[in-house]
Specification:
By secondary structure, the chain is of the alpha/beta class. The chain has helices at residues 56-62, 78-81, 88-94, 104-113, 115-118, 177-181, 205-215, 232-238; strands at residues 2-8, 38-43, 46-50, 70-72, 98-102, 128-132, 139-141, 144-153, 156-163, 166-169, 188-192, 219-223, 243-245, 251-253. It is globular and about 55 Å long. It contains eight helices and 14 strands. The termini are close together. The protein has one domain (2-253): Ribonuclease Z/Hydroxyacylglutathione hydrolase-like (Metallo-beta-lactamase, Chain A, 4-Layer Sandwich), CATH 3.60.15. Strand 8 (144-153) and strand 9 form a beta hairpin.
Length: 254
């Protein structure tokens, strides 16, 4: 059995946005409060997290994550990597480096952004073991068989990840047919839907629903939601059967 915890479902600014007084950002419904997008996947004794954005520390504390075997990065944008400095407690507890899986391009960017981590080692700094991934080439982390799936974020090639019957795709705008085939048979899917209006680098709600229709999961949840999507309670009523809004803290079992 694989257990997935949705750690965050917001966009790069999170929701509420600083200084915004819209209905969503001032909502008292906890489902309208969204940290940056990330998930934890647990199978047996194996624990991995997808992406480590600026809310990483808060997410680890809120979900009571005491051990971590690896982080899987989807891409190099700040809202997905800038929390990597906060892996230090996991280094201290395990006594070892933390495996971080990423595309070669993304790993190179991580080395630039965290140059101090990869310079001469100093006690107390994060310790990272960068491991390259390639779409379509499975990786094994403990009890988990993981398949990186190629997606396009605007014009930027990035990756999502499939874990057996579950797949997690964020920041998608477009998918090649060959990559869609890698998702055949997925029963549970988490995929991004930024807002109702068209956007150049993210799926709109209409586009996300069309992609869900093509993938044909039994259940799909929408993530990476901006405040422009509207109140969760209202949007939920408009969604087709088998599709729901994800929310921070949602638990999924496969």
């Amino acid at each position: 059995m694989t257990r997935i915890t949705i750690l965050g479902t917001g966009t790069s600014q999170g929701v509420p946005i600083i200084g915004c007084e819209c209905r969503v950002c001032t909502s008292s419904n906890p489902h309208d409060n969204r940290l940056r997008s990330s998930v934890r996947v647990v199978s047996g004794d194996t624990v991995v997290v997808i992406d480590a954005g600026p809310d990483f520390r808060q997410q680890m504390l809120r979900a009571r994550v005491s051990r971590l075997d690896a982080i899987l990065l989807t891409h190099e944008h700040n809202d997905h990597v800038i929390g990597l400095d906060d892996i230090r407690p996991f280094n201290h507890r395990s006594g070892d480096s933390l495996k971080v899986y990423a595309l070669v391009r993304v790993a190179s960017e991580v080395k630039k952004r965290f140059e101090y981590v990869f310079a001469d080692p100093i006690p107390g700094l994060p310790r990272v073991d960068l491991i390259p991934v390639t779409p379509g080439e499975s990786i094994r982390v403990g009890d988990l068989d993981i398949l990186p799936v190629g997606v396009i974020h605007g014009k930027l090639p990035i990756v999502g990840y499939r874990f057996g019957d579950f797949a997690y795709l964020t920041d998608v705008k477009y998918m090649e047919e060959g990559e869609l085939e890698r998702l055949q048979g997925v029963k549970k899917l988490v995929i991004n839907a930024l807002q109702h209006e068209w956007h150049p680098t993210h799926l709109s709600l209409t586009e996300a629903l069309e992609l869900i229709r093509r993938i044909k999961p039994e259940q799909a949840w929408l993530t990476h939601l901006s405040h422009h999507m509207g109140l969760a309670s209202e949007v939920e009523q408009s969604l087709p059967p088998g599709v729901s809004l994800a929310y921070d803290g949602l638990e999924i079992t496969v």
